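pasting Nucleoside deaminase for the record, 160 residues
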Amino acid sequence: MSQLTEQDERRLQEVIALAQRSRDSGHHPFAAMVVGADGHVIAEAMNASSMDRTAHAEMNALRLASSQYGPAALAGATLYSSAEPCAMCAGATYWAGVGRVVYALSEARLLRLTGSDPENPTLSLPCRQVFASGQRPTQVIGPLHEEEASVAHEGFWRHG
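structre below
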């Protein structure tokens, strides 16, 4: 399934709205959800404001999903993310066994919004490149709705 579906559009809108709620709650403006092959939400999460710099929205959602389902069940799942998964989150997606990723904001666009803000250090490593390094395919769709996904980030980051 390589086409964008109505469910993809709906879930992506939900995750973009969740990213705004994350910002409104005092967290970094990122959100993610894992949705099973049957369409039910397995897990959703925002970035956590803590000393744990690995508490990205995708990592938090994947930890929740992986605590309930194994790789066989997650193979048919989709990770929806308000921004392109970073290298760490792409690796976690791969190892969790999630077979599909749909994201809004590209890493390149995010970098333009965050600049050199030390709160969001970036790696120039697209998630597609991380997934291409694996032994099994992970389908990736994105970027999508970048203008809308950018709104939660506007004025949030210090450009150092």
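The two ends are 42 Å apart (CA to CA).
The chain is about 40% helix and 15% strand.
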